Amino acid sequence: MSSRLPGFYRLALAERRRCLLESATLPADGFAAVDPGGLPLDVADGMIENVVGTYALPFAVAVNFCVDGVDVLIPMAIEEPSVVAAASNAARMARPAGFTTEVSAPVMIGQIQVTQVTDVDAGAAAVRAAAESLVEDARRLVPRLAERGGGPQRLEVRTLARSGPDGGMIVAHLHVDCRDAMGANLVNTLCEALADRIALLAGGRPGLRILSNLTDGRTVSVRCSIDDAQLACEGATGPEVRAAIAAASRFAELDPYRATTHNKGIMNGVDAVLVATGQDWRAVEAGAHAFACRGGTYGPLAVWRERAGGLDGELAMPLAVGTVGGALNHPGARLALQLAGVTQADRLAALAAAAGLATNLAALRALATEGIQRGHMALHARGLARAAGATGELVERVAAELAASGEVKADRAREVFARLRDGMVDLKFPGRTRPGGEFP
User: Within its chain, how far is the Cα of 371 from the centroid?
Assistant: First the structure.
């Protein structure tokens, strides 16, 4: 399968589907999962509480991606214009060398808090001395996972307070390899099972027993290298764009206000993949922003550096995802994984991170050249054209006039659509307009 699909965005929706059905070898009804009503109400009712309906988001694919030498379609579910187009365009620029990734073992951390510890040093030492035994006890609770190479791996102890409202406080970290699961329920269950024994050893009272979403033991890094020829655009040479992107990266490294927006651009791509594939994107967001503070101040998750003739980018972040359990009974999530050719959690993490680095590159390039609003407003104009009632060729004509006028507004879109609609030539009767603007 090739992810290089030139002009894919110009195809009508039905043609895009036909193209993907062939490329991804899906059955003829493969897109039923993302048709209106694709999530049955009885399934939705079993997913969360107090269900009264379903809420749809646009489901798309980003093209042109080559990740670790393999062409791949990147599924995305998102409401924001320009994200899918930006990711696809950046992937095209990066395509000659592609994206390369490194994914750590899928290790999650479970926290077991102990409060009211009289002697925190002695309590922490006692838990450390029993760590191997505690891990073995935990592994016996998940024998099948342990047989597959996963399960509890080690236990560490940290001292948090020697005194205070909660007395002396320590926390034990249970590191659990979750394999292809995100692992929240698994980790929480194991923490509950060990809490009383750990508290007894420490000479305190058990507190909270729950996973941490700062999954710094479950990370992914992705790199890409872009030549100047790919960076060049109308009005700016490749070296000029390269220098501007590197300067924007340095700005984010120096200023947390800029780093926050820099990272938001990364999460545009990451979150869109996570939503499409039924992941806990809130957990990943929380972990990513905590990870961005690991140096003592908030910084960028991705950095860009100039080299002779081009630009190198690298993104590193925690990314806990799963391909089993969770919300994967959602038919749309299963379709997304199938389109991406994903069966394992580490591959899904790699694709989400590649999407994040791509959207970051696209945003910085736009900021460094034409400005972020131009491309964003062009797509916004198309949305307004459709909202005004335009279909087919009229969408592009209305959008083009809105963009050219600089008035990308809903009322202006309605005016332009009405004028163009009423003036369309009736193809059955050349020279006549359709009376009243009505046409099939």
Answer: 24
Question: What residues are paired with 112 via a beta bridge?
Answer: 172, 209
What percentage of the chain reaches a pLDDT higher than 70? Answer: 94
- Domain assignment of residue 397, given as a range: 374-437
In a domain, 113, yes or no: yes
The size of the chain, in residues, is: 440
376 classed as catalytic = yes
Q: Tell me if 2 is assigned to some domain.
A: no
Co-location of 128 and 235 in the same domain? no
206 and 113 Cβ atoms separated by less than 8 Å: yes
- Distance CA(8)–CA(13), nearest Å, equals 10
Quote the CA–CA distance of 315 and 303 in Å, as a whole number: 7
Q: What is the pLDDT of residues 243-266, one digit of tens each?
A: 999 999 999 999 999 999 999 999
CA distance 58 to 346: 25
Among 316, 341, 368, residue at a domain's last position: 368
- Would residue 80 show up in a list of annotated catalytic residues for this protein? yes
271 and 299 inside one domain: yes
**Domain closes at, from 212, 227, 260:** 212
Model confidence at 396, pLDDT cuts 50, 70, 90, reads confident
Entry pTM: 0.88
Give the DSSP H or E segment for 387.
Answer: helix 372-387
82 domain residue, yes or no: yes
Q: Note the pLDDT tens digit of each residue in 321-361.
A: 999 987 778 999 999 999 999 999 999 999 999 999 999 99
Which residue in 302, 294, 343 sits closest to 322, CA to CA? 343
Catalytic residue among 262, 330, 376, 380: 376
For residue 271, the domain's CATH number is 3.90.770.10
Query: Of 68, 80, 166, 255, which one is the catalytic site residue?
Result: 80
191 with 262, same domain?
A: no
Catalytic residue, from 216, 227, 253, 264: name it: 264
Question: Is there a single domain that holds both residue 334 and residue 254?
Answer: yes
Count how many domains the chain has: 3
Per DSSP bridges, beta strands 219-227 and 151-161 are unpaired
Token duo for residue 61: 């694919």
d(CA 320, CA 8): 31
Of the residues 280, 285, 370, 396, which is catalytic? Answer: 280
- 360 shares its domain with 294: yes
**419-437 CB burial, b ≥16 within 10 A, e <16:** ebbeeeeeeeeeeeebeee
Alpha carbons 1 and 287: distance in angstroms, whole number: 33
Domain assignment of residue 3, yes or no: no
The whole-angstrom separation of Cα 146 and Cα 162 is: 36
